[in-house]
Design goal:
Elements lengths: L1 H10 L9 H4 L7 E2 L4 E2 L1 H9 L85 E4 L4 E4 L102 E6 L15 H4 L6 E4 L1 H7 L6 E5 L4 E8 L6 E3 L2 E3 L1 E5 L33 E7 L6 H14 L10
Parallel strand pairs: 5-11, 6-8
Antiparallel strand pairs: 1-2, 3-4, 5-12, 7-8, 7-12, 9-10
């Protein structure tokens, strides 16, 4: 990317067109090193950190000014190169500093390790717990001090009360720790903006083997589900309804280190594909014994949408749970495979029904009900016949799972 940018700038060097100014005005003169003349990473970090007059590195985002006298790549990283030193590279042993370990690496913003740490002290500025103390008010110095960097105006005393007409940070009192909130208070709920607010509530997933233990409303009543009422998106009974027992296990999907998102890029890279070459499912030894699954053999995972096949990994990592008095087994499914690439396989995402949360519209990929059986899945029409047989046994129709 660096050398591509350099060549583009060279081609545009004599241009006077306004459209080319953003490219030509970029800072792109970083020192290079190594066989491939790569840009120096610390020089890039220093640019992100920002500087003031004379190129002196800034120490904190509080030093940033809106008059053009300072520059900064990203305010939250301002201070990572304070004093001209790569603060993120520090490795001071824990035995040589306090338990917050402020000199091991660097944390944004301002190297604070605990956000809103003013809340660790009582309204008078004294730690609620000496053992867990983070910051406290020093009456002698008239400043906040402590083991951590105060996430609070350093000189704002606990008895500060904002005058009439105060705005911004000045409108927060000395007892208001949550400085990114307009009122400085911790919020138990969002007063506006959520379709299903204001108070947080527990709902079971769209497909769950269990009833909601807290109250009678099983699922989120304003989830987005009706618009997806398609024959290929049949939903399953839930919470003890007739047919729930046809899908007795809970599946969850997750990533692997060796692949990227759904695998569309990493499946084409030999050095990543060979590290994770095949779609697999993780099951406990107890579930393997219950369903006749063999380690490194094949299993078929079935939902009301489709059936997929995966190699079996029998592992103690998938611990059975005891829920509402009965044993519940989990099936773990990495979701990085598909029909193309150097390595291919069935997609775990095909198992999932579309039921979206009403605010950010994310589907429920982390908890859904399924069945698992030994052997490879059927091919062609036989696979659809298997899925339809499961739908028939569970009594699934176009209205199943649509209930408010």
């Amino acid at each position: 990317m660096f050398h591509l940018g350099r060549r583009i700038r060279e081609k545009l060097a004599g241009s006077t067109a306004k459209m080319n100014r953003p490219v030509l005005d970029l800072t792109w003169d970083y020192p290079t090193a190594g066989e491939h003349a790569e840009p120096d990473a610390e020089a890039v970090l220093a640019e992100i950190n920002g500087c003031g007059a004379g190129g002196k590195p800034l120490s904190s985002y509080q030093e940033l000014a809106d008059d053009g006298s300072t520059s900064c790549g990203c305010w939250i990283y301002c201070g990572v190169y304070a004093g001209g030193v790569n603060q993120a590279a520090r490795r001071k042993p824990g035995g040589q500093q306090n338990w917050v370990a402020a000199e091991w690496g660097w944390a944004w913003p301002a190297n604070r390790r605990i956000l809103y740490n003013r809340a660790s002290a009582d309204p008078d500025g004294k730690p609620w717990s000496e053992r867990k103390a983070l910051v406290w008010w020093d009456p002698g110095k008239q400043r906040w001090t402590g083991h951590d960097i105060p996430d609070f105006a350093p000189g704002k005393s606990p008895d500060y009360r904002p005058p009439d007409g105060a705005t911004g940070p000045d409108a927060l009192s000395g007892t208001d720790p949550f400085i990114m909130q307009a009122d400085g208070k911790a919020w138990l709920f969002a007063p506006a903006g959520l379709v299903d607010g204001p108070l947080p509530a527990h709902y079971e997933p769209q497909e769950s083997p269990f009833r909601n233990p807290l109250y009678g409303q099983q699922r989120n009543p304003v989830r987005q589900v009706e618009v997806f009422g398609h024959p290929g998106n049949r939903l399953q009974p839930s919470g003890g309804e007739p047919g729930t027992e046809v899908f007795p296990y809970v599946a969850t999907t997750y990533r692997l280190t060796e692949h990227h998102t759904a695998g569309g890029m990493s499946r084409w890279l030999p050095y990543l594909a060979e590290l994770q070459p095949e779609f697999f499912c993780e099951v406990s030894p107890e579930l393997a014994a219950e369903r006749g699954l063999e380690h490194r053999g094949w299993a078929t995972i079935v939902t009301a949408r489709t059936a997929v096949e995966a190699r079996v990994l029998v592992t103690g990592r998938m611990v059975p749970l005891t829920v509402q008095g009965r044993r519940l087994h989990q099936v773990g499914l990495p979701y990085h495979w598909g029909s193309s690439g150097l390595v291919t396989g069935d997609s775990a995402n095909d198992l999932i029904g579309l039921s979206l949360d009403p605010n950010v519209h994310i589907q429920e990929t982390k908890a859904f009900a399924c069945d698992i059986r030994p052997g490879r899945r059927p091919r062609g029409q036989a696979r659809m016949d298997l899925v339809r047989e499961y739908q028939r046994r569970a009594g699934i129709t176009g209205q199943t799972g649509m209930e408010v």
